[in-house]
Amino acid sequence: MANITYIESNGQTTTIHLNDGWSLMQGATANGIDGIVGECGGSCACATCHCYVDEARLGDLPEASAGELDMLENVAAERKPNSRLACQIKATAALEGLIIRLPETQE
Ligand code: FES
Fold first, then answer.
1. Which among 54, 58, 92, 106 has most CB atoms closer than 10 A?
2. Could you tell me the pTM of the whole model?
3. Domain that includes residue 23, residue range
4. Which residues are near ligand 1 (CB < 6 Å)?
5. What secondary structure letter does DSSP report for 21?
6. Ligand 1 center to 85 CA (angstroms)
7. Total domain count for the chain?
């Protein structure tokens, strides 16, 4: 499990306690965080769960898969070196305290 902090583009900050195996996208949509849409339900097919991961913690995340990297080509907001898809990041103890920022738009 991990406490994940989401910072929306308007500065709204929410910390959510996620059980192991929940994706960061699921945590956001289940808790009413508007900055993540998750249109495809987490099958890495929509790019509406784009987020910017705290650079200092990038090494704590598993590498992005080829499919995630492909889908990151389709994000609506600017893609940055720390861009990831929240549906492809699963909560584990290694992510405790992780901060992600959400882009202004997902579509
Ligand atoms: S929810 Fe569709 S790509 Fe993440």
1. 106
2. 0.97
3. 2-101
4. 25, 38-40, 42, 44-49, 71, 85, 87
5. T
6. 7
7. 1
